[in-house]
From TrEMBL:
Residues 132-226 bind DNA. It comes from Niabella digestorum. CDD domains: trans_reg_C. Residues 7-123 form the Response regulatory domain. Signal peptide: none annotated. Pfam families: Response_reg (PF00072), Trans_reg_C (PF00486). Keywords: DNA-binding, Phosphoprotein, Two-component regulatory system. This is Response regulator transcription factor. Residues 132-226 form the OmpR/PhoB-type domain. It comes from the Bacteria. InterPro entries: CheY-like_superfamily, OmpR/PhoB-type_DNA-bd, Sig_transdc_resp-reg_C-effctor, Sig_transdc_resp-reg_receiver, WalR-like, WH-like_DNA-bd_sf.
Length: 226
């Protein structure tokens, strides 16, 4: 799978584990952010908006369960992948972690190769779910299987990149997508395009939909809202 564009936050108070995991994940092409306690994990999650958060259960300031609960209570992290990586492997602790809202629970020690496979599997699962999801927001319907957009009952024909860009933004209404996120998700990191390319596509989408449903956040990116 394409790992570029995926940010992973690892929170653990054991520095050797942070170093080993960071090295192996970065080697696979992930962008890695680290934190050594619960408060730092929350701050960095808010700042970087990672695709996946890997939490140690036992950390100073706030433990993994507390961090998970705090993040899950916020709208922007309701769909973010969260994995516990911990030496606590008893059944009750695992159940507690999953009931808190974690997507996976992995026991230490674990080989880097096995962890990488678990990470990739989680990200693939979400991408598969997203790829077939029909979006309905207000009077707009976006169908990725049939590659069509309906505004009320009017079918709107979009070019492939225009469709992919609209679909990306509409997946999470109200969320601001950074320019580099958009470039990575729609054009990929192997294609060199400028910021102006996004602006042109946004303008064409607005014109074709005859709706001002994409808001420009100056100097940051774009968000979908009606």
């Amino acid at each position: 799978m394409d790992t570029k564009g995926h940010k992973i936050l690892i929170a653990d108070d054991e520095l050797d584990i942070l170093e080993i995991l960071s090295y192996n994940l970065a080697k696979e092409g992930y962008e890695v952010i680290t934190a050594s306690n619960g408060d730092e994990a929350i701050d960095k999650a808010m700042k970087h908006r990672p695709s996946l958060i890997i939490l140690d259960m036992m950390m100073p300031k706030k433990n993994g369960v507390q961090v998970c609960q705090i993040l899950r209570a916020q709208e922007q992290f309701k769909d973010t992948l969260i994995m516990f990586l911990t030496a606590l492997n008893d059944e009750l602790t695992q159940i507690r972690g999953l009931e808190t809202g974690a997507d996976d629970y992995v026991s230490k020690p674990i080989s880097p190769k096995v962890l990488l496979s678990r990470v990739a599997a989680l990200l693939r699962r979400v991408q598969k779910e997203v790829s077939s999801k029909i979006i309905k927001v207000a009077n707009i319907t976006i169908d990725p299987e049939r590659f069509i957009v309906l505004v009320d009952d009017r079918e709107v024909v979009l070019a492939k990149k225009e469709f992919e860009l609209l679909y990306l933004l509409a997946l999470k209404p109200g969320r601001v997508f950074l320019r580099n996120e958009i470039l990575s998700a729609v054009w990929g990191n192997d294609v060199i395009v400028g910021d102006r390319t996004i602006d042109v596509h946004i303008r064409k989408i607005r014109q074709k939909l005859e709706l001002d449903c994409i808001t420009t956040v100056k100097g940051v990116g774009y968000k979908f809202e009606i």
